[in-house]
Design a protein that fits this description.
Blueprint lengths: L14 E7 L10 E2 L4 E2 L7 E6 L4 E6 L5 E4 L4 E4 L9 E5 L3 E2 L10 E13 L5 E7 L5 E3 L2 E5 L17 E8 L35 E6 L8 E11 L11 E10 L1
Parallel strand pairs: 1-17, 13-14
Antiparallel strand pairs: 1-9, 2-3, 4-5, 6-7, 8-10, 10-16, 11-15, 11-17, 12-13, 14-16
């Protein structure tokens, strides 16, 4: 995207760089649950526990019986507290976002871009996908900025840009998006279960915001979330020409 408030023939480019953090993590399934608790893994032993110092951290058990790995063609058993159950999560993306079309600052307009994120996990508890901005506001060019879209308020069904507005927002789409980005198909967000195209916009924050949350293993196919980005500039916003960049971190964690 290009912005100029000097003349329509003077343009500068604007890009959004999406920094994707792929997380390979170890988590646990629950061996016992109720409405009041989740017991990740159990151990029958005579001692042990957690200890730490400035140089180390240690988890130990003493006197555990029947521990260790056992495998056959039908199962894989990792018995004992220290064996745990390992799960993995992977995150891939279609890449950085280049906003289009170019925008002259004198007349303003709307520019769009998107990137798709695919999460694959074998965690029986599922995964969580978050997004956060490196800066506040996210879109910056030296000392000049473009405001985040309605940061800290309810998501807006439509991306509305007034004559004096200049702002940058996003909306995720996919099967696992959280309630805040769902809608009733009639102009109201955070209700019902629909996922209308290019609806329910929010502004980026330097605090991680949950975009999607899946339940159960989705291996091997995975789940995709497409994040749409939009910059809106009103004709009277007075945006200073420059290269504006927003760097975000998208993180996937197993639950």
């Amino acid at each position: 995207m290009r912005l100029s408030v000097l003349a329509s023939s003077l343009f500068q480019s604007l890009t959004i760089t999406v920094l994707v953090v792929s997380v390979i993590n170890v988590s646990l399934a629950q061996v016992r649950t109720s409405t009041n608790y989740q017991l990740q893994s159990d151990s029958i032993n005579v001692g042990g526990g957690y200890s730490s110092s400035t140089l180390y951290q240690q988890e130990s058990t003493v006197g555990e019986i029947a521990t260790g790995p056992a495998d056959s063609t039908s199962y894989a058993l990792r018995a004992g507290y220290q064996q745990m159950q390992e799960v993995y999560v992977s995150l891939t993306t279609t890449g950085n976002v280049i906003m289009s079309p170019d925008l002259p600052g004198l007349t303003g307009g709307t520019s769009n871009g998107s990137s798709t994120f695919t999460v694959i996990t074998d965690s029986p508890s599922g995964y969580r996908l978050t997004i956060e901005a490196e800066n506040d506001p996210a879109m910056q060019s030296g000392g000049n900025t473009i405001a985040d879209y309605d940061e800290g308020v309810e998501t807006d069904y439509s991306f509305i840009t007034g004559g004096s507005d200049a702002h940058f927002g996003y909306t995720p789409e996919g099967d696992d998006i959280v309630q805040a980005f769902k809608d009733d198909g009639a102009g109201t967000c955070n209700v019902d279960v629909q996922d209308s195209s290019l609806a329910c916009w929010a502004g980026l924050s330097t605090t991680p915001v949950v975009m999607a949350e899946g339940v159960g293993s989705n291996h091997p196919n995975g789940a995709t979330t497409t994040v749409h980005f939009r910059v809106g500039i009103g004709s009277g916003a007075g945006v200073i020409a420059g290269v504006y960049t927003a760097t975000t971190t998208v993180t996937a964690l197993p639950l």
